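lol forgot to send this yesterday, sorry. struct tokens for the thing we talked abt
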């Protein structure tokens, strides 16, 4: 079966496969745990990838000590029951979300979506921001030429987060009988 039949790169690169904020946070938690886990305890099983060309097959060893590769192993294991497109989409979305959150942190602080946490040095993030990012398509790009990468529309993410906040507030009011 050719790869094209089981892998939809367009859906991955356009962000057409939604995720959830809770699932994103699972991967964040795993990523954070790597910082305190001795590398001897990481998944260090040998992995290789082969790339076929006209000159033959080139085999490359994957560097298991790279933080990003450990995240990839985790996502592959977590979504092993899903198809390749879904696994790739979730992994790509994790990295795009993380980069977007870092790049626009000052704006999210100004909007009140990120604020100081209760513990020194910690932050609190509005979970609706994660959800807005987890379900949004990639409608913008950043970078130039071959370095162009998909990303989110900042204004759309802010608007969607506010909508989710409003919806959550309305649900809370209805459930407490204060309409």
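and heres what i got for the seq, position by position
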């Amino acid at each position: 079966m050719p790869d094209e039949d089981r892998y939809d790169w367009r859906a991955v690169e356009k962000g057409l496969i939604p995720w959830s904020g809770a699932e994103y946070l699972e991967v964040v938690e795993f990523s954070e745990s790597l910082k305190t886990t001795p590398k001897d305890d990481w998944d260090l099983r040998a992995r290789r990838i082969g790339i076929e060309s006209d000159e033959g097959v080139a085999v490359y060893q994957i560097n298991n000590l790279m933080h990003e590769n450990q995240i990839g192993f985790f996502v592959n294991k977590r979504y092993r029951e899903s198809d390749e497109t879904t696994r790739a989409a979730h992994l790509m979305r994790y990295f795009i979300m993380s980069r977007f959150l870092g790049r626009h942190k000052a704006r999210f602080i100004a909007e009140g979506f990120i604020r100081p946490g209760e513990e020194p040095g910690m932050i609190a993030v509005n979970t609706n921001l994660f959800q807005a990012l987890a379900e949004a398509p990639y409608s913008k790009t950043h970078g130039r030429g071959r370095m162009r990468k998909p990303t989110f529309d900042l204004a759309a993410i802010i608007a969607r987060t506010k909508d989710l906040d409003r919806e959550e507030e309305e649900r809370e009011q209805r459930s407490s009988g204060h309409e």
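The beta strands are 48-53, 56-61, 114-116, 123-125, 140-142, 149-151. anyway ping me if u want another try
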